[in-house]
Structures are given as C-alpha cells and as structure tokens.
Design goal:
The complex is a heterodimer of chains A (605) and B (240).
Chain A: H1 8-28, H2 31-58, H3 61-88, H4 96-125, H5 135-164, E1 168-170, H6 181-188, E2 194-199, H7 205-218, E3 224-229, H8 235-241, E4 248-253, E5 256-261, H9 266-274, H10 276-288, E6 292-297, H11 318-326, E7 329-334, E8 348-354, H12 362-373, E9 377-381, H13 389-392, E10 397-399, E11 404-406, E12 422-425, E13 427-428, H14 435-440, E14 446-449, E15 454-456, E16 464-471, E17 476-478, E18 497-504, E19 514-519, H15 533-546, E20 563-564, H16 568-603
Parallel strand pairs in A: 2-3, 6-7, 6-8, 8-9, 9-19
Antiparallel strand pairs in A: 2-4, 4-5, 10-15, 11-17, 12-14, 13-16, 16-18, 18-19
Chain B: H1 2-16, H2 19-40, E1 45-46, H3 47-71, H4 75-80, H5 83-88, H6 93-113, H7 117-125, H8 130-157, H9 161-184, H10 189-196, H11 204-207, E2 210-212, H12 213-235
Classes of the chains: A alpha/beta (605), B mainly alpha (240).
C-alpha cells in the first residue's frame, strides 16, 4: 500500500468503538460489562474525534477541508452513539415521546455518519502522504457513502411501512390456516373487544401461520385485537395471563380466558394448524358468549356417548354433543330424575331428543311441549316405529311408522335389497337451518339410514308454522309393505319430507319464539353419518338455528387436500420424464438453434 | 436505460449462441427434477405440501444458480481486462450494472420458469390452484432477483470469478443465517434479523401460495440496495 495520509486508524477506532458500544448496550446490557464495553467504546470514538479535530487545526487547503468533513462525519457517529446510550439508560423512561424519536435517530445518525466516513476514508487513504489531497475525489466518495446510507435508511423505513401495512393475498387452494365462514361470522358479531395474545419466539413459522389467520379474521370486525408476545421478552405478561411457555394462543374478553397450545415446531404443529379454525372458533365463542346448558334426554334408550349394551349396535351420538360443546354450551342429561316428568329446567338453552327406543312418558312429552310453547328449543331426531305423536302432535307434525326407500339414490352398503333404506338427498329449502346445504346443493348429498317421513298435518295448531327443510329424492317411496321394492299401485314415489323446522308462538313481546327441529332419522345425526360432511353441516347449522345463532351458520375451514400416491410404474414414469425428458428437450432445442445460427453464418458471403 | 437493455442483450447472446447456456439450463432443471422426485415427492404427502416442498427445493437451486451466473457478470470482464473498454463506452455506470444484472435475471427467470411442468404434474393428480403455482414462481423470481443483485455486488467487488462467487456466497449466507440468529437473540436485534432473513421469513409464504406486500417489498428493496451498492463500487474507480 502506498504511504497514505495515515488517518485511517481514526476511522478504524470509530468502527471498533461503535462495535464496543453496541456490544455493551445490546449484548451485555447490564452490570460492569456493559459499563466497561460502552465506556471504552465511547472513549475510543471520542479520542478519535479529538484527534481528527487536531488534524483539522494543523491542516491546510484541501487536506484541511477533507479532514473537516471527516470530523463532521465522526461527530455524527459519536452523536448517534451517545443518543443510543441515553436511549437504553434509565433517563429515557422519563421522556417517552423523545424515546420514539431517538430510536429512529440512532441508526440514522450512525449510518449517515458511518458509511460516508468509511468510503471517504478509503479514498483519502489512497492519497500518498507527500501528494496533494484531491478534495473533489474524496468528496465523491463521501457523497457515494451518503447515497448508500440514505438508501439503507429508506429501505428499512419502506420495509417497516410495508410490514405494518401488510396486504396479504392467499392464492392456495387449501388454506391451512384460513378462517372459515362460521368463524368469520362470529368475528363480525363480536359485541365486546376480544384480545388474542400469541406467545411465540421471533421469526417462528407457527406464529406466522397463526398471525396470518388472526389477521384475516381482524378484517371482519373491529373488536378482535392481536397482541404478539414472547415469553422470554415479556415474562410478566405471560405470568399475568397464566402462560408458561411459548407456542400458546390465548383469547380473553371481559375477564374470560381461553387458551390452547400449538407449540413452536411447525412439523409437530401441522396437525393442530389444520384444525386451527375449529379450535379457534370454539375458544372465540367461549370467551365472547355466556355459557348455556343444553340438555340431552335420557332414560328412553336414546343415543348416547356409548352404546347402551352389547345388544345395542346403533351408532352413538358423541360428535353431536361435541358440536354443542364447541358452541360454548354445557351438555347435561335430562331424565325423569332430573325433572323432565314435570318441567324442563329453566336454564335450558335447548333440549336434544336423539333416537329414543321407547316413547317418552306423556308427562315428559307434555313438559317438552310446554317448554317449546314458552320459547324453548328442541331437537327431535326420531326413529320411525317409535311412538312420537305426543312429541310431534303439538308441533303439527307426524312421523310415519314405515321406512323410506329408494332404488336410484341410495347407499349400496351390503349389496342386499335392504340397502335401499339408506337414502341420499340433496334437496334443501332456503331455511336458515340448512343455509350452507342449500348453498352447496347437489355438491352436498345428505345420507339417512332407515328414515321415516316427517309430515306436516293438514291443519296446524294455532301459532305453529312448519318449514320442510330437507326432502327426499323424488324417486323415494314409503315402503309400506317392508319389501324394499316399489309397489306401483300401493306406494307413491315423491320427495318425502325428511326434516322440518317448526316455529311456535313468538307473536307477543313477552313470549319468545319456540323452535323445534325434527328429523325422521336419528342415524342422520349419529357419529356414523356425521362423518359425511353434508350431515355434519345439517347438524351444525341446525343446532345454530335452534340456539338462535343462525347468523353463525357456515362451514368450518378444514384441510381437504388429497395425498399424492403413485403406483410403481407411474412413479418411475414421473421420475424419468422429469429428470431426463425436459432437460433433454432444452438441450435438443439449444443444439438446433446453435446449429441453425452457425449454418446461417457460414452461408453468408 | 436503453443502453442497459443493449448490454443485457449482448450478455444474453453469449448464453444463447453457444451450448454453454443450454447446458446450464438443462443441468439446473435436472437438479430441480432430482430434488423434486427425492425430496418433494418423498413419502405420502398432500398435493399442496408437495408443491410447497417443490418451491422450497427450487429456491435453493435458484439461489445457487444466481450466484454462479452473477459471479461472471463484472468479475469476468475485469479478469479478461475488458472492463476498461466497457467503462470507456458512452454508458453510465448504473446502466452497466443494471444491464449485467438484467441479463442474469433473464437467464434465472428462464431456468425458473422452465421447471413449470413439475407443478403441472402435481396438478394432474392433486388439488392445487394455479394461483398457488403463480405465487410460488413470483417468490422464486423475486428471490432470484435479490440473489442475483447480491451476486452482482460481489462480482463488482472481486478481481476474479472465484472470489466473486465466494464473496456473493458469503453475503447470501449472511442473510440466510439471519433467520437462525433471530430466535436466539433478543429484541430489537431479533427483529432486525427477522427483517433481514432472505429465505426463512420472506420466502415461506410464497411456498404456501400466500403473497405478502411485506415480502415483495423486501425482495425489491434488497435488489435495489444491492444494485445501488454495486453501482457505487463500480464508480469507486474514480475516487480510489
């Protein structure tokens, strides 16, 4: 290296000093270590600046001018460092407004001082000691540094704005963490602020998925707030909310709190993320709505969480209970011992009667009838052949004793003629209890096993209105002779009534509207058939309508992607076509193009 | 910027008039295909996940290819002694840098888009959206643009192609490991590392078919800053 003007040691000292200050303030942070590193750093920069000032005083002409510029830049860096030290010190707490300004100024000053100083010094140092300094050349370098510094400041600022005002477009077909229609409606209907507090370490994939999900929900209404925390950084906030580690999502509103754990590892959390919408909706409902009690009748051979005994092979109704719980309602049994023989409990939000084998006592049916009359809500999922006149009569309905059968749209389960009792339909009304099904139409065929027809009476009781919500396929007949074959003159093919929504009263201000949902097949809402998405939607939207939450009707977003599975021969075909086919074509195309050009060139005179 | 386009065309011609460019394209495609078959299609996976993994492996090959392509842009001219000729031509420094980068970007774009048949194979048997494919390719192009700009900066610094490759690789790795450093540091440093991470934070959403304004802004800004810095380095001959 040529003998330079030998001031680059000062710039190196500024660099080392700045690094020491950074280490003291940001890495060590406390105690003597911080004091030592920061003190030494500031002293180095301060001494280098003083030395530069001496050089300015001793210099002359262009050299003096260049030294003066470099002194200004060193001073700018020093000012930035001092401001940074003040910012992390105790005094900054007393000046909260200035703290924000200083936070932005520190990197600005250090960058605007540092980059031109570095480039200016590089240019200055290349001047031989005995030669005259070319001030213009050094200033070119300083301006280059200034340009770079300002661009960096602009780039960080622009990125900050883009992050804060982020716009997100999801083009994937199966959004892993996308709010479903039902959850969006819950978010729209929030009446009080709900805060979602997420605890994740910085730059975490699971956090990204959760934050994307919550951000999408925030667009639905103003009452959903997102608070991003890290247990390591905010241990006090974590303790206050009862969170012990990162990977947790907590929802809170009006003193109610609901929490669920996803973890911080994406691979492990992938399964939970697929169910995120379902889990989130459940917690959101839990914190935003008061918990009610839904009673399930017992003591008449109803479908329960477990089978009634070894002889009872009927599908259970565990999922239906879980759906009720997911809507933030407690599920309790209701039998004669719990008072069903006299009155339905006053705290009942609804009563579910699912597949009783024996008829309910007249007193119990009477209690349910009176309950609906005074604004109660009841789901009747009944089997044909079980006496139900006492239950359905006051609602203006009858349930046929015979099964419905169909030889066009049915489930061929055992390849026997009795399979015709497993009927499928996609004929839905526009009633709110089948909102989603009516939107999906033919794409959502619901299945019923050994169903009876729920027929409205010709003369409905006073104050009762009936809407048939689900009708059978038009080729369905009521199998009166029980042979699962259509008997032309004795039986009739038509779209029989499979489910009905009933409203009772509600005309006066003091008497709320009673509601009942009646379906002529208990299997339709059993665990067996709720695995069929349309049946699930029927139960889900039906329950929401029954509980007066029909505005929440809609599907929950769950992943429905398909796995790619290949036969061995197909796998081999994929392998070779991708590995050699396309690259070979590129080479062939290139060869032909190059050869053609070469030929053309040779043909030129 | 007409001069920049002329320089880009001149550079492109070097690729297309000899077999070397096609060999680079074919080899990159083969690597992509090999990784697609062995990594993306490994085990029984859902089609969306396979597509995400495909873009993940392609991001690696795109970055590596960008560094290799960028290494020769300015360093080769310097090594061959033709850089002074370019400097003496009536073009501005910024046009030289942008022209060189543009030619590299067109090559990276071509080798990225040529792999399009692989997502189409996934589409045949799976359930993916064309939007997801488009988002993934947008991410790859942005990542390629940024990596290439960093490579151009490295090439502007270095005296030969090897050194250019090493310098560019170091810068790229520096931005890649920011993602690893972010979880082990504290705020505000962790926020800075998160913001700087070239792949972990900003490319992952593209893989999943999600486009964030934040990520697009990041790649555009990295490209801009790197090209600006490369221009300053080229200009430095005036004041060094």
């Amino acid at each position: 290296m040529s003998a330079g003007v030998r001031s680059h040691g000062l710039t190196v000292a500024v660099g080392v000093g700045s690094a020491l200050v950074f280490a003291g303030e940001r890495l060590v942070q406390v105690g003597n270590g911080r004091l030592g590193a920061t003190g030494l750093g500031l002293a180095l920069v301060g001494l280098a600046t003083a030395a530069r000032a001496l050089r300015v005083a001793r210099g002359a002409g262009d050299r003096r001018a260049v030294e003066a510029v470099l002194l200004g830049l060193q001073g700018t860096v020093l000012a930035g460092l001092l401001l940074g030290v003040w910012l992390t010190g105790a005094r900054a707490v007393d000046w909260p407004r200035w703290t924000v300004v200083a936070s932005a100024l520190v990197p600005l000053l250090v960058s605007v001082g540092g980059w031109p100083l570095l480039l200016g010094e590089l240019s200055y140092a290349s001047t031989p000691a005995e030669a005259e300094v070319e001030g213009g050349r050094v200033m070119d370098a300083v301006y280059s540094g200034l340009g770079l510094a300002f661009l960096l400041v602009f780039a960080f600022s622009a990125y900050f704005v883009a992050s804060e005002r982020d716009v997100r477009v999801d083009l994937s077909r199966f959004r892993v963490a996308k709010p479903g229609e039902a959850t969006r409606k819950v978010a729209q209907a929030l009446e009080e602020p709900v805060t979602v507090v997420t605890f994740f370490p910085p730059a975490n994939d699971v956090a990204q998925a959760v934050h994307d999900y919550v951000s999408a929900l925030q667009a639905e209404g103003p009452n959903l707030k997102l608070e991003k925390r890290d247990v390591a950084v905010d241990p006090a906030r974590a303790r206050e909310l009862g969170v012990s580690g990162n990977g947790a999502v907590l929802l809170s509103a009006g003193g109610r709190k609901e929490q669920f754990l996803l973890g911080t590892d994406l691979e492990r959390a992938r399964g939970d993320l697929r169910r995120l919408d379902e889990d989130f909706q459940k917690r959101l409902l839990a914190v935003s709505r008061p918990r009610k009690v839904v009673y399930v009748t017992a003591g008449h051979g109803e479908r329960g969480e477990d089978r009634g005994g070894t002889t009872d092979q009927r599908p259970t109704a565990r999922l239906l209970r879980k759906m009720v719980e997911a809507l933030n309602h407690a599920v309790k049994p209701l039998g004669t011992a719990e008072g069903l023989g006299s009155e339905v409990p006053a705290d009942a939000a609804a009563v579910l009667v699912v597949g009783p084998r024996q008829a309910l006592l007249p007193e119990e049916a009477g209690a349910l009838g009176r309950y609906v009359q005074r604004g109660g809500r009841v789901l009747y999922a009944l089997e044909p052949g079980v006496e139900a006149a006492g239950l359905l009569g006051p609602l203006g309905l009858t349930l046929t004793a015979h099964l419905l059968a169909n030889d066009v749209a049915y489930l061929q389960r055992t390849n026997q003629v009795s399979d015709r009792a497993g009927i499928a339909t996609s004929t839905y009304s526009s009633h709110p209890s089948v909102t989603t099904l009516s939107q999906l139409g033919r794409r959502a065929p619901m299945v019923l096993l050994e169903a009876g027809a729920v027929q409205p009476q010709k003369a409905l009781p006073a104050g009762v209105s009936v809407d048939v919500t689900v009708r059978a396929h038009p080729q369905t007949w009521l199998d009166a002779d029980g042979d699962y074959a259509f008997t032309k003159d004795a039986e009739e093919r038509k779209g029989w009534e499979l489910a009905a929504a009933v409203k009772v009263g509600g005309g006066g201000k003091d008497v709320p509207e009673g509601r009942a949902l009646v379906v002529g097949d208990a299997d339709a809402v059993s665990d067996l058939l709720l695995q069929n998405e349309p049946n699930l939607l029927f139960a889900s939207d039906g329950l929401k309508w029954l509980l007066g939450e029909e505005q929440l009707a809609g599907s929950v977003s769950n992943e429905e992607d398909v796995a790619l599975q290949h036969t061995r021969s197909k796998g081999v075909a994929w392998f070779y076509s991708t590995l050699f086919g396309a690259p070979g074509l590129v080479l062939l195309g290139g060869y032909l193009y190059v050869r053609r050009r070469g030929g053309r060139r040779e043909a030129r005179p | 910027m007409r001069n920049a386009w002329l320089i880009a065309r001149r550079e492109l011609a070097a690729y297309t008039r000899s077999m070397s460019g096609y060999v680079i394209l074919a080899v990159t495609l083969m690597v992509d295909a090999l990784l697609f078959n062995t990594y993306a299609l490994e085990g029984v996976r859902k089609s969306g996940e396979v597509l995400g993994r495909f873009f993940y492996v392609c991001s690696g090959t795109t970055m590596v290819a960008s560094i290799f392509i960028a290494a020769r842009l300015l360093a080769e001219e310097r090594q061959a002694g033709t850089l002074p000729l370019l400097y003496s031509s009536p073009v501005r420094d910024v046009e030289i840098v942008v022209g060189k980068w543009l030619s590299g970007f067109l090559v990276v774009g071509a080798l990225t888009l040529l792999s399009f048949y692989m997502p189409m194979l996934v589409l045949l048997d799976g359930r993916i959206s064309l939007g997801h494919v488009a988002a993934g390719y947008l991410g790859l192009l942005l990542l390629g643009a940024a990596s290439l700009a960093l490579g151009t900066l490295g090439s502007a610094f270095a005296k030969n192609q090897t050194l250019a490759g090493i310098l560019s690789g170091c810068m790229l790795v520096g931005l890649l490991v920011a993602w690893i450093l972010a979880p082990v540091t504290e705020r505000p440093l962790s926020d800075v590392f998160t913001a700087l991470a070239l792949h972990g934070v900003h490319f992952t959403p593209f893989q999943a078919g999600v486009i964030h304004l934040r990520d697009v802004a990041y790649y555009v800004l990295v490209t801009w800053v790197a090209l600006f810095a490369a221009t300053r380095v080229v200009e430095a001959r005036r004041w060094r």
